[in-house]
Design goal:
Length: about 60
């Protein structure tokens, strides 16, 4: 339902998941947080398993 709203109505949907495949498959923008702080904001081609893993590890995006 939330994905449909985002696609058809242009609404933003925020959700939290530890399932990287689900996030990469679903999101057009992804924010990585560590210790309650934003450490990376991924968009476009950065939203990939490699991009997320690099952000988690603390690499530059």
């Amino acid at each position: 339902m939330a994905v449909e709203l985002a696609k058809t109505e242009g609404m933003s949907v925020a959700f939290i998941s530890s399932e990287m495949d689900e996030m990469v498959r679903t999101c057009s923008k992804l924010i990585v947080m560590r210790d309650r702080r934003k450490v990376a904001e991924l968009t476009g081609e950065q939203v990939s398993s490699d991009g997320v893993m690099q952000a988690i590890a603390g690499g530059d995006n």
